[in-house]
Specification:
alpha+beta; YojJ-like (1; seven-stranded mixed sheet; 11 helices; elongated
């Protein structure tokens, strides 16, 4: 075994190493593009089918192998349709020269300034019962949702957030997408959750927040138009009746410390807080 490895290494040239490194890098970029998206689930399904097909061939299960081979042919033809959004996004990134661009992260000072602005706007809107829906982008890109709205690309500020959600204004009906400390777009459309076990009292705004958190790792902040209650949706779950300080702590840990666990006291206080207002 050692002799074979030494023989293999002796045949490698500098160009071979560069070739392998380039392919590995592009596979890594592909992994980052698909990570935590619905496309990742589809890829896992394809890998499971390939594994089953290999096992069936090894066991000489000819009928099953034949069916799987024909199915894989159909699937390969359908892949460009299934992955159309991801393929389009990749081509756009190449055209804009952003394929190798690494998203900048907020430093602690910028994060606190953003959180203060969001918290102040949330407090005012909650007091005045102004409905609001804010999506905080994390690892999963939200380009598809951003494209459904109106581009803003403005620095997050309390005044800007409040102005966007003033009732009967052009941009108030929809979600704001926040990336870092900038409002990328407003009036964005979000997918509604298909969970039938939710309280019937939850309206469209809360169901959209839950649906968005089911399909990505985004944090979605909701202010109820009916009662002014503040909620946050994450991983398909809705934390209700939060204070402004709760919102800042949850968002701080999710954005600046994404792998840190929530404080036990906060988790205990939020446990079981479901139901409530409509919109």
């Amino acid at each position: 075994m050692v002799v074979q490895m030494q023989g293999l290494l002796s045949t490698l040239s500098v160009l071979d190493i560069i070739d392998i490194a380039v392919v590995a890098y592009f596979l890594y970029r592909l992994y980052l593009m698909l990570k935590n998206t619905r496309a990742a689930t589809l890829v896992k399904g394809l890998l499971v089918l390939v594994l089953i097909m290999i096992i069936c061939r090894w066991l000489n299960l000819h009928v099953i192998s034949w069916l799987l081979e024909k199915s894989m042919t159909v699937i390969m033809v359908a892949l460009p349709v299934v992955f159309q959004p991801e393929l389009r996004r990749a081509l756009e990134q190449i055209g804009r020269g952003k394929l190798f661009h690494k998203r900048s992260e907020l430093d602690e000072q910028e994060l606190e300034a953003m959180l203060d602005s969001v918290a102040h706007a949330t407090k005012v809107m909650s007091r005045d019962k102004v409905g609001a829906l804010m999506v905080f982008e994390r690892a999963t890109g939200l380009v598809e949702r951003i494209e459904t709205g109106v581009p803003i690309d403005g620095l997050v500020s309390s005044g800007l957030i409040q102005n966007i959600f003033v009732k009967d204004t052009p941009l108030h009906d929809g979600a704001v997408v926040i990336r870092g400390n900038r409002i990328v777009a407003a009036c964005c459309l979000l997918p509604l959750t298909e969970n039938r076990n939710l309280s019937q009292e939850l309206g469209t705004r809360h169901r959209a927040a839950i649906g968005m958190s089911e399909q990505s790792d985004a944090m979605v902040l909701v202010v109820s138009e009916e009662t002014g209650a503040i909620s946050i949706a994450r991983n398909g779950e809705l934390m209700r009746y939060l204070t402004v300080n709760d919102v800042k702590e949850i968002l701080r840990r999710a954005i600046f410390q994404p792998h840190a666990a929530m404080k036990v006291s906060l988790a205990d206080r939020l446990k079981g807080l479901w139901g409530g207002d409509k919109k």
